[in-house]
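step=predict obj=Amidohydrolase n=271
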Amino acid sequence: MKEDLRVSVIQMEARCGETECNLRRIAFFAAQARHRGSALACFPECALTGYSPKNAGALALPADGKECRYLEGLARLHAITLLVGMIERGRGKPYLTQMVFGPRGLIGRYRKTHLGAREREYFAPGDGTPVFHTPKADIGVELCWDAHFPGLSFALSRKGAEILFVPHAAPQRAGARETIWNRYLPARAYDNRVYLCACNLCGENGQGTQFGGGLLIAGPDGEIMAQRYSPTAGMLTATLSADMLNRYRADGDGEMESRFFPAFARVELYD
């Protein structure tokens, strides 16, 4: 990272079949994030469409449809990078997708590669692990269950990701979410020397499923910088230090606790 930057993670209710209402919520929080000085704002998995695997086909939207064009315009309007989750229409089964829109237009999309047990019947897995080059930082995305596979975080870090965004659509109550996240998300940040920013849906999806929320930002030292666990909609914002990140990524064999561990991995032994 060339300079310090502000990022925001958002938890919000996304009701299935109420796309226009979901877009209004996204627009509200995008404006709030920019007001706080954030250069990047991440919304939960399926924030645009709502999350309901059994109804995925009916909820799926095209990645080039009017809704995504609106989000692209929103990113331009606020000169911000927006990461927004949706169910994306595919040729067969739909995808769980996180769209990335920058101030100059669409940057790319990530399709969830590791599907949960309840998702495999209804969704197709993605087959790429891209790193997105945004105006302020190089970022990677992992969707919910993805983050339980350490190799994905490792691969994204080795490809140059400086921040990992981990949007969720997880129904556990807030207290359980805090316990689970604190067990493994800071470790993903520490082992791979990345900032990690996680968010979750909250409220009800309009079809009887409740989401408990959860927001967390961890540093490349594995320390939790900020967190919020509440069942209500909200946003968490933090300033990420470029100096801290770059110290870990500098060349040389410094003290063990300050090294960029992925650079020393013997990946030829892993398969």
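step=describe
The mean pLDDT is 95.
step=end
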